[in-house]
């Protein structure tokens, strides 16, 4: 960075000493410049009070030139080939208005990030010039986001073993619970049937279904009778398969 430091020394001298004496910059304009600075849009905050280095240009300025858009609307420029100078800049509806060496140009901001600035400079005479600048000081990376510990999902409640029944061709295990019934099939998978009620239901005749199978618990006699049916079939009695 020594070469960059040497290049910045004349610029700082120019910005702090020569700026107040620059041509066309009367002291009476300072309050107006401050007012314009206060109205700068938030996106311009990335632009001001930072050193930008010309990385590529289709014309002038040369590569390596330094540009600083100060918040008081002073433009400070320095390059190895020319004496540092100051001008002015202001925000415009379509971008910026830059005055360098008594020449005012419209400037379109093509890209403005924390690290890159691309401009299309359109002087009053001659062809437009596209300039790419990079930040001399890169912004620090954002702090790493804390990794929140993940909470393991609670294990599923085990399915009760139930009582084995033979219901026609189906061999199942049935476990009664409050408002539902667990049906464990012969292959080990299970189905939960919710109590549905209905015209055929009563306190001693409770009906459970999931829309595909239906199970009826009948306690109207001295023992519990289980009936089972698949969709579209009439319930049939099940026998204990212990």
Helix content: 10-25%
Count of β-strands = 17
H/E element order: HHEEEEEEEEEEEEEEEEE
**What oligomeric state is this?**
single chain
Shape: rod-shaped
- Structural class comes to mainly beta
- Tell me the span between the first and last alpha carbons: 88 Å
Which parts are unreliable, with pLDDT below 50 for 5 consecutive residues or more? 1-30, 32-42
**Average predicted confidence as pLDDT:** 80
The proportion of residues in beta strands is 35-45%
Walk me through the structure.
With 242 residues, the protein is mainly β. 11% of the residues lie in helices and 43% in strands. It contains 2 helices and 17 strands. The protein has helices at residues 2-18, 30-38, and strands at residues 51-57, 66-69, 74-79, 82-92, 95-100, 103-112, 116-122, 129-135, 163-167, 170-177, 180-184, 190-195, 205-209, 213-218, 225-230, 236-237, 239-240. The strands form 2 sheets. A 9-stranded antiparallel sheet has the order 16-15-14-13-12-11-10-9-17, with no helix packed on it. A hairpin with a 2-residue loop joins strand 4 and strand 5. It is rod-shaped. 18% of the residues are buried.
Give a quick precis of the structure:
By secondary structure, the chain is mainly β.
Question: Which terms would index this structure?
Answer:
disordered N terminus, 8-stranded antiparallel β-barrel, 9-stranded antiparallel beta sheet, 43% strand, 17 strands, 2 helices, mainly beta, single chain, 242 residues, 11% helix
């Amino acid at each position: 960075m020594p070469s960059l430091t040497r290049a910045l020394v004349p610029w700082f001298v120019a910005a702090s000493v020569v700026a107040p004496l620059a041509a066309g910059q009367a002291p009476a304009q300072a309050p107006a410049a401050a007012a314009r600075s206060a109205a700068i849009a938030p996106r311009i905050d990335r632009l001001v009070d930072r050193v930008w280095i010309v990385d590529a240009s289709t014309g002038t300025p040369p590569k390596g030139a330094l540009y600083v858009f100060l918040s008081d609307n002073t433009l400070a420029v320095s390059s190895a080939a020319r004496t540092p100078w100051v001008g002015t800049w202001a925000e415009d509806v379509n971008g910026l208005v830059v005055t360098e060496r008594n020449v005012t140009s419209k400037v379109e901001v093509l890209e403005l990030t924390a690290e890159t600035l691309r401009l299309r400079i359109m002087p009053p005479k001659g062809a437009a010039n596209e300039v790419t600048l990079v930040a001399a000081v890169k912004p620090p990376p954002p702090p790493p986001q804390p990794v929140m510990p993940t909470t393991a999902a609670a294990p599923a409640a085990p399915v009760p073993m139930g009582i084995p029944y033979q219901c026609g061709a189906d061999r199942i295990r049935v476990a009664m619970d409050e408002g539902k019934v667990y049906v464990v099939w012969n292959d080990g998978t299970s189905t939960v049937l919710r109590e549905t009620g209905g015209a055929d239901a009563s306190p001693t005749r409770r009906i459970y279904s999931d829309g595909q199978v239906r199970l009826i618990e009948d306690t109207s006699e001295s023992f519990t009778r289980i009936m089972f049916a698949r969709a579209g079939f009439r319930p049939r009695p099940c026998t204990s398969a212990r």
